[in-house]
Design goal:
Phosphorylase Kinase, domain 1, 31% helix, 22% strand
């Protein structure tokens, strides 16, 4: 397992809320765009001028740029699996593991944008630095990747999250990934994990985001199992037996409990974890 980023996609402050389908809007971008806080290959991220708890991710429709289509598809995928899991008690009880769900996707002839809840750095709202991607499967890692953010391992995460909450977060992340995989029917391929605070929180949380490369499925096939394993294993966002056996057992326990809600067999679960870590 590598601690390196997988590609150079834009990764900055991201999002959560309602709406089930992309919309068209005549609202002027000048009415909502605040300060630029991030930039990458797929777009530019701004603060929301009228709501500091939100951010706006903008892409221009230039020739060869497929980001508007990708974002539209991603919005639909997140909404689809979220609708399947949001009413479950086990999901409602999650305290430290969350999904960043865009509240709105807007497309016009010349551009598109997503409105998202903004995730602030753990140090506070006034700190403008790269977003943190949490790597619980890396005992000690520090790396800044242009356009992707700051990658921190377990030792570094502990400066923001205490040991008790890391144990709980590992368990809850297992639940959340299991729910997305088996109840939400989404393989979560290439998902990413952020650490920070939303606009109203004093506590750091872990946020799953970036489902643009994920795929929905109907039946669990060997190919889907492989993609599920990849979603857990490609970058060390989640604990492994080698990185921390206690956290790994908590993660696997949560994942298995969520899988059992969807009547997934232990054999399928073991196949997913067979090549994990």
């Amino acid at each position: 397992m590598s601690s390196s980023p997988r590609n150079s996609k834009s990764r900055n402050s991201s999002g959560n809320s309602s709406n089930n389908s992309p919309t068209n809007s005549k609202k002027s971008m000048d009415q909502i765009l605040g300060q630029e806080i991030g930039r990458g290959g797929f777009g530019v991220v701004y603060t929301h001028k009228n709501d500091t708890s939100l951010c706006v991710k903008v892409s221009n429709k230039v020739k060869g740029n497929q980001s508007c289509r990708q974002w539209s598809n991603e919005y639909k995928k997140i909404t689809s699996f979220y609708d399947r899991i949001q009413d479950l008690d086990i999901f409602k009880k999650l305290k430290l593991a969350k999904v960043l769900k865009p509240s709105e996707f807007v497309e016009s002839p010349n551009q598109c944008y997503m409105i998202m809840p903004r995730v602030f750095r753990p140090e506070g709202k006034d700190v403008i630095k790269p977003t943190i991607q949490a790597q619980l499967g890396c005992p000690s890692c520090v790396m800044i990747h242009k356009g992707r953010g700051e990658f921190l391992g377990l030792e570094q995460i502990k400066q923001f999250v205490d040991d008790k909450d890391i144990v709980l977060a590992s368990y809850e992340l297992g639940i959340l990934m299991g729910l997305i995989h088996f109840v939400g029917k989404n393989d979560a391929y290439d998902v990413e994990l952020y650490l920070g605070k939303d606009g109203n929180s004093r506590k750091c949380r872990f946020y799953l985001a970036d489902f643009d490369l994920s795929e929905e499925y109907t039946n669990i096939t060997p190919a889907i199992i492989q993609r599920m394993t990849w979603s857990l294993d490609a970058v060390p966002y989640f604990p492994t037996e080698d990185s921390d056996s206690e956290l790994f057992e908590k993660f696997k326990k949560g994942y298995s409990e969520a899988a059992h809600i969807a009547n997934v067999s232990d054999d399928i679960i073991e196949q997913i974890f067979e090549n994990y870590g």
